[in-house]
Predict the structure.
Amino acid sequence: MSESSALFRTWLRRFRPADDAATALVCLPHAGGSASFYFPLARALAPAIDVLAVQYPGRQDRRHEPNIDSLGELADRVADAVALLDGQPVVLFGHSMGALLAYEVALRMGDAGPAHLFASGRRAPSRYRDDRFHLMSDRDVLAHVRRLGGPGSELLDDPEIQSMVLPLFRNDYRAVETYRHDPVAVLDCPVTVLNGDRDTLVSSEEAQAWAGHTRGPSDIVVLPGGHFYLADHTERIAQLLRGRLSVPSLP
């Protein structure tokens, strides 16, 4: 296996074949999340769109690798892998922490793209709150995760599960909470912001502020639900993506 192939397979997961797809959609998970979170979206979009989900170190098949607690370093690594997608327009979709990471990856792509950035469940990079979840007790971190109601949150009463996921959440919260954007850096691509109407982590003003991070057009789509609204709206999001990217639905 070549060095470039090894890099690609380390960081990117393709759950559905899409050999003839004109567009590659690179999906970046939330804090504590993994590539498999995007399996339903890949199933809904393939083969019209080539969906590739980023697998962060420290989880699932990369569980023996050390976590990365710097959003900048993580963006560097992901951008190197995304650069191997020659010949296809690249679109980025990130949820929560993944939205910030997608923004930083997009900046690193420069003139090569992306063609569009979809930022889900995350306030604009220039909007900060005094969150310190990475410094809180295990009990408080778990309570926060339960309140968000993410995938698998019903399993968090199991001590074995707790021991597996707590280091991931604490690592990823540290990466997000210590992140600061470059106020000079601005994208050129269109940005679509998606949020749940009951998501307490993103206010209307914080969502609208994404418009200041691109010279291109921007819009906001609000769907019913909380922070993990997208788990209940896979087909609706797939339709939105196909529409924004001018990709027809397959029969």
User: Anything to note?
Assistant: The radius of gyration is 17 Å. Helices lie at 3-11, 39-45, 71-82, 97-109, 138-148, 159-177, 204-208, 234-244. The first helix runs from residue 3 to 11. The chain has a mean pLDDT of 92.
